[in-house]
Amino acid sequence: MSENAAAGLLGAGQIRDLAGRLGVRPTKRWGQNFVIDANTVRRIVRLAALDPDDVVVEIGPGLGSLTLGLLPQVTQVLAVEVDPILAAALPDTVAALAPAYRERLSVVVADALDVRTLPDPQPTALVANLPYNISVPVVLSFLEAFPTLRRVLVMVQLEVAERLAAPPGNKTYGIPSLKAAWYAEVRLSGTVSRTVFWPSPNVDSGLVTLIRREPPRTPASRKEVFACIDAAFAQRRKTLRAALAGWAGSAADAETILRAAGVEPRTRGEQLDIHTFAAIAAARRSRRRCRRLARGAGGSIPSAARPPSSWICTG
Length: 315
Known about the structure:
By secondary structure, the protein is of the alpha/beta class. It has 13 helices and 9 strands. Helices cover 41% and strands 16% of the residues. The radius of gyration is 23 Å and the shape is elongated.
């Protein structure tokens, strides 16, 4: 018996043999690139920093390489798999290689992009080798749908990993960086060679850690803040005064809102952090409220209804 088999982990030969027995050929449609290196699995599990009482949701378990590494470390693994053949085979693989942990596995047959609920107990951590084409929307949708998630460790395309973890002012900083920062502290935890996958992709991968934190304190909703971010980066090279004109109502309105939020209108979106975008969205919300109050009061705002003087309501 090989060292990998003794440890309950799959090696490259075992993975190819298992795929052959199942008649599975990795498909681009589902972004299937299976991890064939047991040391990479151990590294992912170590960096995930899981607790014994964690409930882990794993997206795209595939043939079970990472699943087998996770099961001994946690209370339960909820494996979300879109491929019905792989989903049906995963419990048998666990029963054969890790029989002591078979009761810790639950398999959910679903497209991760459609998942908004999971069976109890609710997940406290997300650990996954994510398909490149859906990695960012999946991470964001799970953070939104499952507030119980405290930690995330995902392996994604290196370029995507760098975008998620980029700080303001970085050339790769943008929409993924800001939206991830709404939910969590994000950092790049390492890189992974393309050679640890079968089939080997054309790019290297990166490991990204997200630690849940409270979102920015703002009267604006997450949806309002995200709409502001989308508008700011739809025309990345433009100043915020120009880029936010459609979102605000006009370039003049954008300037008024930006100044109310303490932002120089000639600033570009890549220079601002998530807290500043939250302030901009809040200033727009306050401005709209002021205008509604003014219309209802015949053009003047009763003093009792006026918002704090820090908000600009005129112009």
